[in-house]
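The protein record quoted in full:

***
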Amino acid sequence: PSRAFHGNNRLLTFQITSHYESINQGKTELPEYFNFASDVLDEWARLEKDGRKPANPAFWWVNEKGDEVKWSFEEFGSLSKKTANVLSEACGLQRGDRIVAILPRVPEWWLLNVACMRAGIVLIPGTSQLTAKDILYRLQASKAKCIATNDTLAPAVESVLSGSQFLKSKLLVGQGSRDGWLNFKELL
């Protein structure tokens, strides 16, 4: 409990505090546009690659079976760039377009979040407890052009497709495949 997840937390806390202090005192300019993926994740990946930051996981996920996924900042950055390419190229999304993501908190959920930040795509998260009626409402209200979900929820999405005139692509996150769906893992 006393060990810091990212190693020396005193140094990290001091760096963050001093950065915010310099902003508050007007010594550091705020960027006109801030993008977490490029301004934070990519910067930490660069520091990690240059050996100026210890190699600690940027992402560490463990499921109930004990399976784990662990990515460095460089790996997480690279995978989020690939995911952004999937969204823009295969799914045809552009800055400002919307995607509904109805997934449990699997690693791909986090990749989609950061990729959307990176590409300027609006992510609309949804709980995996949504009903078909809930999904249709979110698709219609958001005018989402893409939906990402897993094998379990794909049938609920398919049952309401006729009522969603804006949806252009469907992204399946999981091991299976379905007619008319893009497979995230294959595209990545």
